[in-house]
Structure formats: structure tokens, C-alpha cells
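Input record (one chain):
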Amino acid sequence: MSRDLRPPVDILHYEIVQEQASALGRMGRALEQALTRLREFDAANAAPELPASMQPARRKLVLEAGQALWMLVVQREASGLRDSRHIMRTYNVPGEVQLCMGLVPAPSKPGPR
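The corresponding structure, as predicted from the sequence alone:
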């Protein structure tokens, strides 16, 4: 029976760092997925001007990507990684997504009763 001889503080620190890395991975994958959905929408609707009926759907995708970006940036900053330029370059984040980073979408209006 082996016994870990490291002090409990070291073991706790290791577990915290491991969870931070795991959370960063989850947040990065969520951003990738949100950006992929936006890019696929844009590719499927490649027209000189997006019809007004499609604009809310696209705006929703931009806001979702902005939220995913915000979550990743906050997680990185909580881990001590303060420079977000790396994320913007690595994930090729569009400017419109960067501008809505952290915005919370307005609640939808309830329908008539």
C-alpha cells in the first residue's frame, strides 16, 4: 500500500491547478463550438445582405459566442493569464464577437396571454 508523503497543501494546490486547466479546456471548447456555429451560419447564408428575418438568429449566435469568449477570458484571468490577445488570435475571434463579450442578452418578451 503506497502512501503519498506530500504535505496536504501541495496535494490541494495540485488539485486546484488541475481543475483550472480542465476548466480552461472546457471554456476553450465552448468558444470553438460557438464560433463554429456562427461561421457555419454565415457560410450557409452567404449573401450580400442578410435578410431582416435572419438577423435575430445571427445576433443570437454572435451573443452566444461573446458569452463563451467572456467565460474563457474570465477563467484565464482567474488563473493569472491576463493577456487576452492570444485568445483573439488563436481562435480568430471576429471583432463583433469581441465587442459583445460579456453582454447578457435581454430576456425575451412573453407572448400574449
